[in-house]
TrEMBL record:
Annotated source species: Acacia crassicarpa (northern wattle)
One Pfam family named in its UniProt record: Methyltransf_29
Source species, domain of life: Eukaryota
Alphabetical list of Gene3D superfamilies matching this protein: Vaccinia Virus protein VP39
Family: Belongs to the methyltransferase superfamily.
Entry GO CC: endomembrane system; membrane
Locations listed in the record: Endomembrane system; Membrane
PANTHER family assigned: OS06G0138600 PROTEIN (PTHR44067:SF3), S-ADENOSYL-L-METHIONINE-DEPENDENT METHYLTRANSFERASE SUPERFAMILY PROTEIN-RELATED (PTHR44067)
UniProt keywords, alphabetically: Coiled coil, Glycoprotein, Membrane, Methyltransferase, Signal-anchor, Transferase, Transmembrane, Transmembrane helix
Membrane protein topology class: Single-pass membrane protein; Single-pass type II membrane protein
Any one GO biological process: methylation
Primary localization class, coarse: membrane
Listed name of the protein: S-adenosyl-L-methionine-dependent methyltransferase
Length: 419
């Protein structure tokens, strides 16, 4: 750079003029400073703004993706909840019939409507509405069910008891109620109790519509099942000797069985009781027995009622409409053979156990064992309940609906006290 001279004495100071080379260097330095400042200014202004914009766009895209995923999850949860609610209603029997079908009878729609409780939620049961009882398998027979519910209100019911029974056998149980008058039968010739127990029942006391036979003489010539061959003939044949006279070692006499009971026998249930002769013999001994039956090919229910006994029109697939531990005796024959999977027999056996009181008797009467495997399965099932074997007899019996002889099991078992 240039030199500096100082003249002492005159009170002034003076710079000498810089050379060309030093001036160029100064210009270059100034340019560098300015350029550096410009880059610094760009670094603090332009570059962060561009980076922030890019970061903001990226964040917005991520938020949008997350929002879409959350919305999708919420929709899936909502859909799953609706499906669970619908499945629960179907399992409980609610809304199991599609009432939007065009061929659904108006009476069925009215019957299945939910009725809100007038005072809101019931504090004891927790329910808010009343729902009509109807079998959940009714949906599978919706057309037949709608036909069953198509009638004139307060008029005569169609003569369709066979259709009702067909629905029951298809699992449509319980059936819906109807607002019509059932066909009346005059019931001419009924006898007073206890004479009615063994007096022949007149043909005019029952409804023969929907049946192949139109009188009891026709029925007595038919094999209606293993436990009902001539079972409507109360005068001739073996029916009036059943349970008081044994034809083989598998036939137990009622008095012998009653002698095994502790605490006495007062009320009982006969499952698949045919024409009601077991209940009749028990009635003679002051024991009240309800006979469970259906009108398969014969008017069993009306015949039992004409004898002054209590028929229960119910399929074996239905839970018994009785409270726990109420019966002193449950009598069942080959009708306990419900067929199908072993679990089906288990469901029935557990329900029998439920309604039988501790110390009560379970009388298995001439149960047909088609083979050793079936007999072993039944034996294992009975042993699971821990019943005491009071009588246990395995023998042979002529199979009335088949050919030759079949092995049968008869037993009297006592239900234990469980804690």
């Amino acid at each position: 750079m240039g030199s500096v001279s100082l003249k002492i004495g005159d009170g002034t100071a003076r710079f000498k003029r810089a050379t060309f080379c030093s001036s160029a260097v100064n210009i270059i330095m100034i340019f560098c400073v300015i350029t550096t400042n410009l880059f610094a200014l760009y670094a603090f202004t332009a570059s962060p703004k561009h980076h922030n914009n890019h970061l903001l766009l990226h964040t917005q895209k991520n938020f949008s993706l997350i929002s879409e995923q959350v919305s999708l999850i919420l929709r899936e949860i909502d859909s799953s909840q609706k499906k669970l609610v619908q499945m629960e209603k179907e399992l409980l029997g609610y809304e199991n019939v599609d009432l939007s079908r065009p061929n659904i009878a108006s009476e069925l729609k009215l019957y299945l409507q939910h009725h809100q409780l007038p005072l809101g939620k019931d504090s004891r049961t927790g329910i808010t509405e009343m729902v009509a009882s109807i079998g959940h398998s009714c949906e599978k027979s919706a057309d037949l069910l709608s036909q069953y519910m198509n009638y004139k209100i307060a008029g005569p019911c169609p003569d369709d008891w066979s259709s009702a029974q067909k629905l029951i056998l298809r699992g449509c149980e319980p059936l819906p109620r109807r607002r019509c008058f059932a066909k009346s039968v005059s019931k001419v010739g009924l006898y007073p109790f206890p004479i009615s127990l063994w007096k022949p029942v007149g043909n005019k006391t029952v409804n023969w519509s929907g049946l192949g036979c139109k009188n009891f003489e026709c029925l007595n010539g038919k094999k209606l099942g293993r436990d009902c061959i001539g079972c409507f003939d109360l005068v001739n044949g073996y029916e009036n000797q059943r349970y008081i006279k044994a034809r083989g070692k598998n036939d137990f006499v009622i008095d012998d069985v009653l002698a095994l009971a502790s605490g006495g026998i007062r009320i009982g249930l006969d499952i698949g009781g045919g024409s009601g002769s077991f209940a009749a013999r028990m009635a003679e001994r002051n024991v009240t027995v309800i006979t469970n039956t259906l009108n398969i090919d014969a008017p069993f229910s009306e015949f039992i009622a004409a004898r002054g006994l209590f028929p229960l029109f119910l399929s074996l697939d239905h839970r018994f409409p009785f409270y726990d531990n109420v019966f002193d005796l449950v009598h069942v024959s080959s009708t306990m053979d419900v067929g199908g999977k072993p679990e089906k027999l288990e469901f029935l056996m557990f329900d029998i156990d439920r309604i039988l009181r501790a110390g009560g008797l379970f009388w298995l009467d001439n149960f047909y064992c088609a083979n050793d495997e079936k007999k072993a399965a039944l034996t294992r099932l009975i042993e699971r309940f821990g019943y005491k074997k009071l009588k246990w007899v395995v023998g042979e019996k002529v199979d009335s609906v088949g050919s030759g002889k079949s092995e049968v099991l008869s037993a009297v078992l006592q239900k234990p006290v469980r804690v």
